[in-house]
Amino acid sequence: MKKVLNLAMYLIVASLLFVSCSDDDNDSVQVVSVDGIYVLNEGSTNGSISLIDKSTDEVSNDYFKAVNDLPLGAFPQSMAFSDTYALIVVTTSTGAGYVEVVDKSTFKHVGSITNLSYPREITVVGDKAYVSNGSGATAGDKNDILVIDLTSLELVKTLKVGAGPEKMVLSGDKLYVANSGGWSNADKTISVIDINTNVVAETIEVKDCPKDMVVDAKGNVWVYSAGVPDYSNYPDVSYTNSGISKITAKSSTVTSFELSNITSTGIKNIAISSDLEEVYYMSDAVYAMDINATALPTTKFINKTFYGIDVNPEDGSIWCCEASYGVDGSVIVYNKDGEEEKSFAVGIMPNSTTFSY
Question: Does pTM surpass 0.70?
Fold first, then answer.
């Protein structure tokens, strides 16, 4: 993932800037239905979105530019849908960034939420969006969750959390935030936000550098912690205190499992099956773990690692992003038995797949 964190940079979120959209479509790229499967491509200079038609498997690459006749920008990190909008988090080459807002029914540009210091992930809860935004190295220092009213597209609250907030997931009325740390130091906490009051109600400790999370059928939160990297033998990189943690939602009890064989370089390393009963995670391969298991599996489910992994909630297929810097990537689709079914050619550095039906 193209991390461009600038620890000296932080602009207080003070305003929302809206830029008018273009009415000119690019007829050289066929535009398909906006209901479908979206792949975020980080790119090398400008990122892009690939849209895959779920019925025909037809791919429209650079879809945002095709519809709006303007580039998306570098480097898109995450995407979410409300009833009205598609919201795309973009982190720029300087480390700052914005949220691109498009109309869900047309994918036309509506506006941009700007002046963000280092936006990473977005989660929609009802009529609000939560954006993780951090450029500080220590907890509480320039590391925020921004609460956006989706009716007015205005910032309504800023919540201080741990260092380097990344992924957020909702379980019941609690929003869990993975605080991954900064370049110079690690964090190992999960901030828990009460969405009824929009206050940080609890902080839970897991393993070092939590980056990605999913929620299972029981409401328990599974955390992927990448560990603290050791570059002393570069290009060989090792990781300490990495692992998978399960947070029991009712009691906040943590059960952790040690990972000792991480080779995956991506940040989106965990997914949940469509029935929410099985966790998929990456280390030196993709593994499948029953949510009731008491130990990590030893058998490889898919004998490869990827830049990102997601699950199609309709059919349970597993969508894996294969990326190499500077060249077009692909998304490889596996069935629930771990067998490859098909693949799609997409843009440069695909990192995640979002499903909108």
Answer: yes
